[in-house]
Amino acid sequence: MSKPFDFTVVGGGLLGLATAHTLATRWPGCGIAVLEKEARWAAHQSGRNSGVIHSGIYYEPGSLKARFCREGRERMLGFCQEHDVRHDMCGKVIVATEPGQLPRLRDLERRGRENGLELRWVEGDDLLAIEPHVKGIAAIYVKDAGIVDFPGVADALARLAEEAGAQILLGSRVTGIQQGPDGVRVTGPDFEHETRFLINCAGLHSDRIGRMAGGSPPVHIVPFRGEYYELRPEKHHLVKGLIYPVPDPALPFLGVHLTRMIKGSVHAGPNAVLAFSREGYRRWDIDAGDLREIVSFPGLWRLAGRFWKSAIHEVTRSFCKSLFAASCRKLVPEVEAADLTPSPAGVRAQALSDEGRLVHDFIIEEGPRAIHVYNAPSPAATSSIRIAEGIVDRIPSDFHPRPMPGAVFAGSS
After folding, report:
1. Which of 292, 330, 333, 394 is most deeply packed, by most CB within 10 A?
2. pLDDT tens digit string along 174-186?
């Protein structure tokens, strides 16, 4: 067993890496371990998302999401500029394609302005000047949205954290957590170490890590696969920036949209369906244990009872490329099924309450010698640096390292 660490972060995604970097910056010389079960960091949600820097237009004013998105966007842009990570604030349009969507679009405009955004209502030629191939009766133009190389952000965070003394331990799957009077023992198939304080940034497995550590997660993580297509190169010109539909406020998903990626490709999606594994990136990826847990959770069936029509539509579109293309054509009529090629999927860690309610806001809770991030959906990637600051701010003062001049903390090399 190694010497005890001051802090152990479970999860090597953007949030876990940002937390390690923040800890190392705030308390230089402290012992920090990041435990990531995969052979590389940012292997799941952090490296399998749409690559969008979100503006915060969708989120309830006053919520953690709204505040952290606004502040996190500025932190992320500053980080990318300082460390030469590719990004482009290309802007986005949220497009109403039929009159019945206009009241919802106006509500979004009001919400966005309450969240401090500069927005522009556009119609006709003004809309076509932004996105020449869009078909819509009106749209909101959001200039505070863009695209970024999130894997590049993760690489920079990992490099900076390691340079500051943090240890990123890849291939370290946590199988046990035991609270003791003086610390926390964290174990895996081939490691065991002590830590003074645990930070749970485990994403798709955050509720499991929380229970393992003796916590009582207020939500259950249910995986939803986001399926994407990519436009063939000859059709890239159809999309200049980000093109989104008016979302259904009852659902956590924003609907099929068209996104220019930082490397120049154009993706369409996501189509959201229940995954049969917490890491079920392909349609027939099934984990027997995960599946038993999913189907035995009453909250899922309560959710399905309310949204069964939407679920049937998503599943049908998952198997029917022409139906997926039809969703794209509502925004850009020139997109045909033949223009779409399959692209890697992502899995969203959707938090559900026991009552089957979709949990929209971030959930960060304190436990014995621990902080647990139980829900960090989009815009968590955009907000990761700001969320990490908020996590470190919540560490009780009893656990703040107080080095003597020239001292080296336990766990540091």
Report:
1. 330
2. 999 999 888 999 9
Domain that holds residue 208: 1-86+147-219+359-413
Please give the full DSSP string across 319-387, using - where no structure is assigned: H-HHHHHHHHHTT-TT--GGGEEEEEEEEEEEEE-TT-PBP-S-EEEEETTEEEEEE--TTHHHHHHHH
Contact status, residue 240 vs residue 293, Cβ threshold 8 Å: no
In one-letter notation, the amino acid at residue 300 is L
> From CA 129, how far away is CA 132, in angstroms rounded?
6
Q: Label residue 405 by pLDDT band (50, 70, 90).
A: very low
**CATH, residue 68:** 3.50.50.60
CA 7 – CA 198 distance, rounded (Å): 6
- Is position 381 within any domain? yes
Nearest to 215 by CA among 368, 362, 396, 363: 368
Contact present, 281 and 344 (Cβ < 8 Å): yes
Residue 165 is assigned to a structural domain of this protein: yes
Number of structural domains (the chain) is: 1
Question: Does the predicted model carry a pTM greater than 0.85?
Answer: yes
Q: Tell me the backbone φ, ψ of residue 22, rounded to 5 degrees.
A: -65, -45
Q: Which of these, 27, 29, 26, 71, lies nearest to 53 by C-alpha position?
A: 71
Residue 73, in any domain of the structure: yes
In a domain, 344, yes or no: no
